[in-house]
Design goal:
This protein is of the alpha/beta class. It has a single domain, classed as Rossmann fold (3-Layer(aba) Sandwich), CATH 3.40.50. It is 38% helix and 18% strand. The chain contains seven helices and seven strands; from the N terminus they run E-H-E-H-H-E-E-H-E-H-E-H-E-H. Strands 1, 2, 3, 4, 5, 6 and 7 form a seven-stranded mixed beta sheet that branches. Helix 4 links the parallel strand 4 and strand 5. Helix 3 packs across helix 4. The longest helix has 21 residues. It is globular.
Length: 185
């Protein structure tokens, strides 16, 4: 896998907003995770093994993605700023499908092949589709903004980086901090 590749067979299609988390074309919220920023928000020794920390984050996000494939109560997706996702006209139960994109940059990109291999080994070929992994060829922030602009539907970018938050808001996405994500996990 080279920089900029997406792990999982449906990577490019998912980045454009088609093929929602469950394989249907219904409404979906995309959560775009700034891997470096979220990993760096907890002082758990991540700096000794950035790729290993990215794999651990992916494992946590995979559980969220599995729940998101069947639907998460929309009220749980309100951000710390109190922003509610829009009425997506979906399930009357108040559930909304969620897909997760993890953006890796720098040394953490080495996690992408490990994540893809673990997913294939653990659950078969479809396992890599649970969390889309995007390796940024350069700046992770630039890749996140590109995704915030290009993904269809409602997007929530998870980062504490003030400048990135500003850029993502300008791209039409909501933003939330790492603590919001950890509470959702």
């Amino acid at each position: 896998m080279t920089a900029g590749d997406r792990a999982g067979p449906a990577g490019e299609e998912r980045a454009r907003g088609r093929g929602a988390a469950s394989g249907t074309d219904g409404p979906v919220i995309t959560i775009i995770v700034d891997g470096a920023n979220v990993v760096g928000s907890r002082p758990d020794g991540w700096w000794r093994d950035r790729a290993g920390a990215a794999v651990r984050l992916h494992d946590e996000l995979a559980k969220l993605a599995a729940r998101g494939a069947t639907g998460i109560p929309v009220q749980l997706l309100s951000t710390a700023d109190g922003d509610q996702p829009p009425d997506l006209g979906g399930d009357p139960s108040g559930l909304v499908k969620v897909r997760v994109i993890l953006v890796l940059e720098g040394a953490a990109r080495a996690a992408a092949p490990r994540i893809a291999e673990r997913a294939r080994t653990a659950e078969g070929d479809r396992a890599g589709e649970a969390v889309q992994v995007v390796t940024a060829p350069g700046s992770g922030d630039d890749e996140i903004v590109r995704l915030a602009q290009s993904c269809a539907g409602h997007r929530i970018v998870v980062t504490a980086d003030r400048e990135l938050r500003r850029r993502c808001l300008a791209a039409g996405a909501q933003v939330a901090g790492p603590s919001w994500l950890y509470a959702l996990l």
